[in-house]
Amino acid sequence: MTQAGTRPSGYRAGYGPGYGPAARRLRLGVNIDHVATIRNARGGGHPDPVRAARLAAAAGADGITAHLREDRRHMTDRDIERLVAEIELPLNLEMAATEEMLAIALRHRPHAACIVPEKRSEVTTEGGLDAHGGRELLEPYVSRLGEAGIRVSLFVDPEPHQLEAAVALRAPVVELHTGAYCEAWLENPEGAAVEDELRRLREAAAAAESLGLECHAGHGLTFDSVPPVAQLPNVVELNIGHFLIGEAIFGGLDSTIRRMRAVMDKARAEAGGALGA
Ligand code: PXP
Fold this sequence. Notes:
By secondary structure, this protein is α/β, with parallel strands linked by helices.
């Protein structure tokens, strides 16, 4: 059976199974793309992304995220097939709005699909999707994925007009791009730009919730930069990849994910948004 057919009841409420609306536990989606990047450097099957996904689950991840790119630079079609078939956690498939990716998503029916902009020349997803300017193009993708029972999210910059476009498109979820915030953090963690970017994220997350959108965030987050984002009360899920896989070289994947989970939970608890608060 597909993931869409086996999803635990209550998961769609946005707070995870078993949690009421007041219990805003922050979910962690672990992006395992770069396990495949390392595997692909030599070909063959090692390291295996499915093994990494199982380990992430044991270490406290709430979901697995994988981006099937048009050029297949990391995840392959077979990886997606195996992740859907072999892991228990919900899979969030990141995909460009193309007919090819839509067909793959409809075939595998992951729990969620996050529509991202994609350029062949970029090293990573550089900015958010222009949901506002691309409404007509996106509409059939959002509706066909939604009709198949796949929870659609749009990866957007923290801008009010992008959130309004998500509502108009009837996407239930937005993921706010945290790249500008993380870059400002790397430049100077105490700089005014960090505060500015954080304010944009805070306002966008609050606006998303008041518009009825479930709000996720991600891109570029590290142990150091994650706490202020984890403290945004309207954000219910973070998706983190590159740092976790890179840091795992030094600390191991299990302890790296556990530590990220702990850092997120501590920040959330300090902000008064812990479980049961
Ligand atoms: N969210 C989305 C939509 C992404 O495209 C990515 C990068 O693939 C991430 C989160 C994770 O970003 P990072 O790998 O920098 O943690």
